[in-house]
Amino acid sequence: PIDGQRLWDSLAEMAKIGATAKGGSCRLALSDEDKAGRDLFVSWCEAAGCTVTIDRIGNIFARRKGRDDSLPPVVMGSHLDTQPTGGRFDGVFGVLAALEVVRSLNDRGVETLHPVEVAVWTNEEGSRFSPPMMGSGVVTGVFTLEEILDKVAQDGARLGDELVRTGYAGEAPVDHPMHAYLEAHIEQGPVLEVEGKEIGVVTGAQGQRWYEVTVTGVEAHAGPTPMRLRRDALVAASAMVQAVQRVGLETAGDPCATVGILDVHPHSRNVIPGRVFFTVDLRHPNADTLADMDRRFRAAVAAIAEQNGVGAEIADFWHFPPTPFAKPLVDRVREAAGGFGFSHRDIVSGAGHDAVYVAGKVPTAMIFIPCEDGISHNEVENIAPADGARGAAVLFETLVATAGK
Amino acid sequence: PIDGQRLWDSLAEMAKIGATAKGGSCRLALSDEDKAGRDLFVSWCEAAGCTVTIDRIGNIFARRKGRDDSLPPVVMGSHLDTQPTGGRFDGVFGVLAALEVVRSLNDRGVETLHPVEVAVWTNEEGSRFSPPMMGSGVVTGVFTLEEILDKVAQDGARLGDELVRTGYAGEAPVDHPMHAYLEAHIEQGPVLEVEGKEIGVVTGAQGQRWYEVTVTGVEAHAGPTPMRLRRDALVAASAMVQAVQRVGLETAGDPCATVGILDVHPHSRNVIPGRVFFTVDLRHPNADTLADMDRRFRAAVAAIAEQNGVGAEIADFWHFPPTPFAKPLVDRVREAAGGFGFSHRDIVSGAGHDAVYVAGKVPTAMIFIPCEDGISHNEVENIAPADGARGAAVLFETLVATAGK
Ligand SMILES: NC(=O)NCCC(=O)O
Ligand SMILES: NC(=O)NCCC(=O)O
């Protein structure tokens, strides 16, 4: 029911903005590139006859009228921001598949009972500004607007100022009404590809706990300071990185444990590091297991700090529990995939998505498509055009069934 | 023979430039603060009747005429630049003790046969620009002027441009003649303090090997990427940091093994690191043992890379072999210390100093004084005023004996 070539062409057009050397995209949230991507998206939505609204956290909602326009909209969407060395599909695919659904509704002259909207959520990646999923988190009351506007980027910029600078500090209130929410996304992992499935029917997302750890030792000269007298913050922190890895390797089920950022102070070749800052990201589909990973992580950090004669402080940075999606809507996704004869399987999302926060407010479901080698958050991220078309088709069917005739 | 209070006051005055929150100094090489420190030093030298020359790498030589001014000068000196969170004595003590010797020669109307000079060497620390000991390395032919002028700082500045900007791109040629070289310095380690010795008679410096290691894994999403499929560059690099520490702990004698810088790419909380860069600094007084440390370090990095399915490249960055000082001059330092009745011991320098490079060209010796808790390259670095005065007195005696009457 959709035009796969048009979808593919739009993906290619968007990928030109912030294109990186190795074929990926860099559109960090509220950067010049993110603004250019948003502007292109808005121009496409207006060309498709939609009315565009920006809310106070910079989320974009492009609306196609419903037969009863007083009803709350069925919203489809995802994000246009990327990681620093991100890919061409993470987020973008969900936004442009949703736009393709609207274009196809137009082509076929399909009227829906509920209005239909395409949403672009602000800063899903959580890379330039952290935590992730800010736009959807503000709309669903997980964060206050004020705390998020005051977030400061790694580069020193304030989020509220960047919204104004890029022209996306909108006027609309942040309690956007929604009837249901659908998000298409690349899997970002290897399961569908390995099992040869065309569609992932996402039953929910695994829980996440993010931390910030600060290790404090004693700076001293790398030459005349005997090994036995050192309190090297990096030696301790590197043992902690190993411990985080072990927490991941030694947990049953599908655990994840990652250190993505590690900063050394004073950052000089001949100074024993006096302070190290690093981030930790623990994930598991099961809440009890995630709590157990949390305990083992904390115990390991404390023991390593003690052994190395250094201080270690763990700060909770962000978390959400394992989050199931709405069963009736998930069933509808499975039926749509089956109806087209696409091979499919139920799957738990390893990543957080705006859908996770929205699921706390309205019935929500997600559709996954395979990505090459399961790689994402990498410039080489790739999909097969036919997989993109299949995902958009399932989104179309699920949308029409949910928005009503 | 010297004025300990005047020396102490000058140290305190200099420490006001680039003073840090915790009582240390930050005068990174060729920064605004380094320029201000140099300017103050030059004004003091001129007030003491010296003629000041700047060479093309920015080294400062303040000259007090000799009875036979055609003879090459006996040079005393050290450096005024510091680490990012450096102390008030590392380098500065040697420069201002030398200035105190000149002031005392003036007070007493002592004439020397050879002219006497105080040298300030450019960028000894090797922190902002690396490697260390650049000014003395250019003068002694270890580095070419051209390669050093083209060095680029962590902050992106070019060394040659910073010389011009700060007004220290001098005209004098870089093959400065010297009859002998004497450098007073804080020990930067705990030995003198622990043993209750007032003066360290430095017989030479241990050898150093510096490396840069780049670990290459595969960036991927921290959520949906199973632990077993990861090629996490930081997990591998942290095992390498542990291995470097073991090389240090498991070597006999007085080994040092340090990782001072470690940078993670792409530096995002939810991306498995795809690349890690880190620096390694290995030291030992014995050349064969240092070569053995080098072998064990390389083997450990290769084995860890293999185990973790990542790439690892080791680049040699800088090195110098264990370097003995000139026996007759070292004997003179020992005699001067003994003559004053100061307790002393022979000691090998754990740090590199400009004296190491100068020792390759002219007879060289160093005088160490104790520093509190053996701590340096740290804002809390401290000395007892009486130790400073003793070091300057030994420098005075050795200088007079070397420069002749
Ligand atoms: N899809 C995605 O990368 N979301 C950001 C939050 C997470 O790391 O799971
Ligand atoms: N004294 C000093 O810090 N010199 C720099 C070279 C080294 O790290 O040994």
User: Count of helices of chain A?
Assistant: 12
Tally of DSSP β-strands of chain A: 16
- Shape estimate of chain A: globular
Oligomer type: homodimer
Biggest interface, residues from each chain: A-B, 74 and 74 residues
Mean pLDDT of chain A: 97
Largest sheet of chain A: 9 strands, mixed
Tell me the distance between the termini of chain A: 16 Å
**Uncertain regions of chain A: pLDDT < 50 for 5+ in a row?**
none
Can you give a write-up of this model?
2 copies of one chain form a homodimer. Chain A has helices at residues 4-15, 32-47, 92-108, 134-139, 145-149, 159-166, 191-195, 233-249, 287-308, 327-339, 354-358, 385-403, and strands at residues 51-54, 60-64, 74-78, 116-120, 180-186, 199-205, 207-216, 220-221, 256-258, 262-265, 271-272, 275-284, 311-320, 323-324, 344-349, 364-369. Helices cover 36% and strands 22% of the residues of chain A. With 405 residues, chain A is an alpha+beta fold. In chain A, the strands form 3 sheets. In chain A, strands 1, 2, 3, 4, 5, 6, 14, 15 and 16 form a 9-stranded mixed β-sheet that branches. In chain A, strands 7, 9, 10, 12 and 13 form a 5-stranded antiparallel β-sheet that branches. Chain A has a two-stranded antiparallel ribbon with strand order 8-11. Chain A is globular. The relative contact order of chain A is 0.18. Chains A and B meet through β8, α8, β9, β10 and β11 of A and β8, α8, β9, β10 and β11 of B. The complex binds N-(aminocarbonyl)-beta-alanine (2 copies). One N-(aminocarbonyl)-beta-alanine sits between chains B (124-126, 132, 351-353) and A (221-223, 270).
